[in-house]
Amino acid sequence: MNLQMMGLLADGIKETLYMTLVSTLIAYVIGIPLGVVCFITDKNGICPSRVVHLGIGILINFVRSVPFLILLVAIIPLTRLIVGTTIGSTATIVPLVAAAAPYVARMVESSLKEVGTGVIEAAESMGSSRLQIIYKVLLPEAKPSLLVGGLISMATILGYSAMAGFVGGGGLGAIAINYGYYRYQTDIMFVTVVFLVLIVQFFQEAGIWLVNRIDKRGA
Amino acid sequence: MIRLEHITKEFSSKNKKVTAVDDVSIHIQKGEIYGIIGFSGAGKSTLVRCINLLEMPTSGRVYFGDQELTSAGEQELRLARQKMGMIFQQFNLLEQRNVLKNICYPLELAGISKKDRIKRAKELIRLVDMEEKEKAYPSQLSGGQKQRVAIARALATNPEVLLCDEATSALDPITTRAILALLKRINEMFGVTVVIISHEMRVVEQVCGRVAVMSRGAVEEAGEVKEVFLNPKSETARRLILPDKDEAGSDAGRHSIRIAFDGQSSFEPVFASLVLESGIKLNILGANTENIGGRAFGQMLIEMPKEQEKQETVKKMLRDRGIHFEEGRDGR
Ligand SMILES: Nc1ncnc2c1ncn2[C@@H]1O[C@H](COP(=O)(O)OP(=O)(O)OP(=O)(O)O)[C@@H](O)[C@H]1O
Ligand SMILES: [Mg+2]
Fold first, then answer.
1. What does the pLDDT look like over B114-125, one tens digit per residue?
2. Closest C-alpha among A75, A114, A89 to residue A23
3. Nearest chain B residue (CA) to A119
């Protein structure tokens, strides 16, 4: 493997990290409020609303059931509108976020469900407002679980980002496809896959270390 | 202090309607410790949750002082809740906050500065004897310790009322007594009105002044604890007080006394020596005692002999031993 190749791989890693991290971040910016609203509007929630709950639920399920590659193609006009182009790693962030945000919303909702109803009730009995319950009780109490969800989401987004390589996305996925698939350079494909695995593994380990540090619930 | 007027709460699921609380009216006085006792499913929790409107009654009114809570706005209700602490069977502490921060929570809601919050929280930690565990997280505490923290948290904003829903039901008998003693101390020190929900007679007996006996959503009888326990009028009260008592026990016209064991000694030796030394045959109508560390707590209902003279002998012997007893009124 020559220097040029190594430079290519380094860029690929950078692009993959960029796409994954930025997409995860934006997906959470959208997914957390969505998940919270979905959770509190449940019929036993602190702000029940059948219409909102059902509406968000349908939206989430709809987007989640569309296969990623189809979504990728289907929202090309939107991508062009937002980024100005449809190829490259920045352009890939749009479909990644679109696919990941509903997924994240569900993850957030299920993390919040782990917070005991008793704790929420205690907070109500102390005179907390709904907003205070959300940001002082629900989110802090669910933090470790939210973090675990974040790790899982990130691994999923990383996988999607590699898939996006097929339709002009950047990163390690594009390298694997361009060299390994189109040019039969299996060694390069092999190396990119190894890097993808290493990245996932790294985040997983780092994340679990962090979760164990911040979770006060004990064993 | 707290006035419940004709509170009814119905839960309706698909095709069934459950009346959890059925036309209950209670007036709880300022500074008293009021017990609400009943078997599981009687509607005690629902009733107490109606006091701070965690549960909105289907009909009826709730007054907190002069304020009608059932018609209060959201903001008013929140402020009223800050004046009513509540503790639970499952403690419900914030798992991701340590002891100090848990106690700070209601102070944060009240908008108190960080410095004052910590000062106040430390006072409360001292009050509930948890100084060593200030930095500990709930998962590192025992049940009794968790309840102490929950009590401290509930008291942080100087509430006028403390609602306790089965606060000791997850605790062992010794810890239960310690927690109840703490509640009593708080009541005496700060004049906090305490409402205690329990299905255990001994809990109510230890600390409450007045009690309401609930069954199937309704209050079957209410009054002074002493009165209710000595002369239970309702079937529920009788079963709660003396679970193993047979039907004959409710016969009128017999003279009975109730002996309260308050940790003096085990009850068997007391009773045995009573019978042996007096030579009088005594009939136990029912007992509800338990031995904690070799000491007896609880009570025993004893049928007295018919003869006035023998009755006096027995009473004198009890007095000599420093054992507290009360005479049933129906015998006079
Ligand atoms: N949210 C609810 N939805 C439907 N039914 C309910 C609800 N909460 C309570 N109930 C019903 O109301 C009745 C009274 O329940 P409640 O919890 O008040 O009893 P309790 O006296 O506190 O019993 P326990 O000693 O077991 O705590 C029960 O029949 C229960 O099934
Ligand atoms: Mg209950």
1. 999 999 999 999
2. A89
3. B92
